[in-house]
Design goal:
The protein is of the alpha+beta class. It contains 2 helices and 8 strands, in the order E-E-E-H-H-E-E-E-E-E. Strands 1, 2, 3, 4, 5, 6, 7 and 8 form an 8-stranded antiparallel sheet that branches.
């Protein structure tokens, strides 16, 4: 296994506030290649800004992000990419959520104050709520 650890990864992209990220990236190729990315803390608003600048999203994806305007924090984010796996199993994710909010989009209601844990893959996911102050949706 090959691993790179960035204790203080400074990233400054145009209108995104500069952040000091702690990131680990690993690669393993026993039976098939597996990439793993670990990020200690990630602001959802930053993800939206960076994605819109560096990765052209399909129209639906851009519409979802621009309309929902997600905010809040992902803590201890873990992403795994298996490029040779079947499509549904190529990307898996797991993260704690802290005070996540988003606006309504079509039949999806707006929500705020979401804390807990989210995990899943390209086809499905699970959200476990854990909030002392509750959450709201409209």
């Amino acid at each position: 296994m090959q691993t790179a650890w960035f204790e203080h990864f400074q990233l400054d992209i145009n209108e995104v506030p500069a952040r000091d990220w702690r990131i680990a990236l690993s690669y393993e190729n026993k039976e098939s290649p597996v990439w793993q990315l670990s990020v200690e803390q990630l602001e959802l608003a930053d993800v939206h800004s960076v994605l819109s600048r560096v990765w052209p999203l399909p129209q639906v994806g851009a519409d979802v992000l621009n309309t929902m305007q997600p905010s809040g924090t992902l803590d201890h984010l873990q992403l795994q990419w298996r490029p040779e796996a079947v499509l549904a199993e190529r990307l898996t994710f797991d993260s704690n959520l802290e005070n996540v909010a988003f606006s309504a989009w079509h039949d999806v209601p707006a929500a705020s104050g979401i804390s807990g844990r989210i995990s899943g893959d390209l086809l499905q996911g699970e959200l476990r709520l854990a909030s002392d102050t509750g959450f709201s949706y409209i």
